[in-house]
Amino acid sequence: MNVYTTLDDPNGTPGTFALGINDNETVVGHYFDSNGSHGFIEAAGVYTTLDDPNGIYGTDIVSINDGGTVVGWFDGAGGEFGFTETGGTYATIDDPNGIATLAMGINDGGTVAGYYYDANGVTHGFTDTAGVYATLDDPNVPVNTAFGTEATGINDGGTVVGWYRDSAGAHGFTESGGGVYTTLNDPNATGGTFGEGINDAGTVVGYYVNASGAHGFTESGGVYTTLDNPNGTNGTYAEGINDAGTVVGYYVDASGSHGFMLGGDPASDFFGIGTSDILWRNSVTGQVSIWEMSGPNLIGGGPIGNPPTSWQVAGIGDFNHDGKADILWRNGATVQLGLWEMDGTSVIGGGQITAPSPSWQVAGVGDFNNDGMSDILWRNTTTGAVSIWEMNGTNVIGGGPLGSQALSWKVAGVGDFNNDGYADILWQNTATGQLGLWEMNGASVIGGGAIAAPSPAWQIAGLGDFNGDGMTDILWRNTQTGAASLWEMDGTTIIGGGPIATPSPAWQVAAIGDYNGDTKADILWQNTQTGAVSVWEMNGTAQIGGGPIGALASSWQAAHNPILAA
């Protein structure tokens, strides 16, 4: 499932522009205040301003590589110059052919791509490898005209992305070395296609313009996918992409420009590579282990600890905004609450969280305020009251009460049912089977309503975005026949779905996740008799891949976020 997260630098009063992202999920860009433009780095929700000391009129950061070197350009006393910054050390980039140089991208080898203006004001792309400059001019640009070429990004293989202009308008391009150029024209574009970033797999991001405005896109193997931030009423601009497929850019609404990050939901991605992993807990010994997955293939992982069995997994989510899943714990005996901030199989942070009284139970985990960090949904099992804690790591930074529901209503799950970037709450009445949805914005219910319910034999088996439209869907399982079915949702409306081929009743849904990284939810099955584990890779109601993974003793169960918990 693709999730949009808004990125607003707290110093950016008129606007924030997210332009680049590396494989560590560190985002760079620039913001404007009353003094002009300033570069920023955002990591785990913390913004750091970077101003080139020569940039007396402004600094713009555009890209960052995996080593943490940033690249951009500044406006100084002598004009516009590119620069790199590593550990506080700035180095100027000045193409000898240009009167102004703008550095736009950098790969892990340190090669910089950008463009310069010549004496006639015409732009030319360039690469800079250890001080050796090479000019890049798309051959489709008419010579001796005002049209030009702008290189905007480069991947580790040396493929450059950018755009050029001719008499017909703007066109994206890639240059894969040796002067081999490929033109990119989004089929929806009537006002130009602009290539802005490229990852090591060759996926390009950028934006196109048509009669309805600016729209982001990705392009891979000739297939174009439009990216429209739901908040971008006045345009969406995709600017950068990392190897996990996470996209950054900015959108424009009535209040100005806002950065965004678009990536798969990291609820069970412990390694930050864009695919879900499996968290296992041994109910007898308390041992905890992670399987790092790529489709049905176990590619890594291992044990991570052995807490007492009184501690139970209360939820999984990204609580510190580092693009990797963390583990929320609740002690059933003492009601203590704790967080393990994870990096793969390593506990790298976290700690104890002050917990409410025992009558309050964790009912769900999700990002209710769209800040890129998971929050905690609480339900009082005595009064029916509902409350949200908005989290930043182990700190409660906001939230509040939502109201109450009769105790016959249980939280069936948490997901983004209307594709606005905010987690919503799905309810089910355990007496009648009726469903209801609260569409949320922080601690405010902003919409929703009743949803038709199937017969009581059908139980919710899991939630996920099975058709890749950015909205959470509902997976059902018939407790009498073992049949499975899918409801594809748009808010409270069932827009598609249908029956799914079903294994024998001994196979139970163990978890839902995106195990192959295609942004569509897949089904993890576990056989309660043999312990065998298998994954079904899904596209809507169709199984398109997957297979057996292995087998575990019956004492091992996959941990997941609550379903009908409180």
Task: Please describe the structure with a list of short key phrases separated by commas or semicolons.
four-stranded antiparallel sheet; about 575 residues; mainly beta; 48 strands
Description:
With 566 residues, the protein is an all-beta fold. It is built from no helices and 48 strands. The strands form twelve sheets. The protein has a four-stranded antiparallel β-sheet with strand order 1-24-23-22, with no helix packed on it. A hairpin with a 5-residue loop joins β16 (169-175) and β17. The radius of gyration is 25 Å and the shape is elongated. The chain starts with a strand and ends in an 8-residue tail after the last strand. 51% of the residues are buried.
Q: What can be said about this structure in brief?
A:
The chain has 566 residues and is an all-beta fold. A hairpin with a 2-residue loop joins β12 and β13.
Layout of helices and strands, plus pairs?
Layout: E1 2-7, E2 15-21, E3 27-33, E4 36-43, E5 46-50, E6 58-64, E7 70-76, E8 79-86, E9 89-93, E10 100-106, E11 112-117, E12 123-129, E13 132-136, E14 149-154, E15 160-166, E16 169-175, E17 181-184, E18 193-198, E19 204-210, E20 213-220, E21 223-227, E22 236-241, E23 247-253, E24 256-264, E25 278-282, E26 288-294, E27 297-305, E28 311-317, E29 326-331, E30 337-343, E31 346-353, E32 360-366, E33 375-380, E34 385-392, E35 395-404, E36 409-415, E37 424-429, E38 435-441, E39 444-451, E40 458-464, E41 473-478, E42 484-490, E43 493-500, E44 507-513, E45 522-527, E46 532-539, E47 542-551, E48 556-558
Antiparallel strand pairs: 1-24, 2-3, 3-4, 4-5, 6-7, 7-8, 8-9, 10-11, 11-12, 12-13, 14-15, 15-16, 16-17, 18-19, 19-20, 20-21, 22-23, 23-24, 25-26, 25-48, 26-27, 28-29, 29-30, 30-31, 32-33, 33-34, 34-35, 36-37, 37-38, 38-39, 40-41, 41-42, 42-43, 44-45, 45-46, 46-47
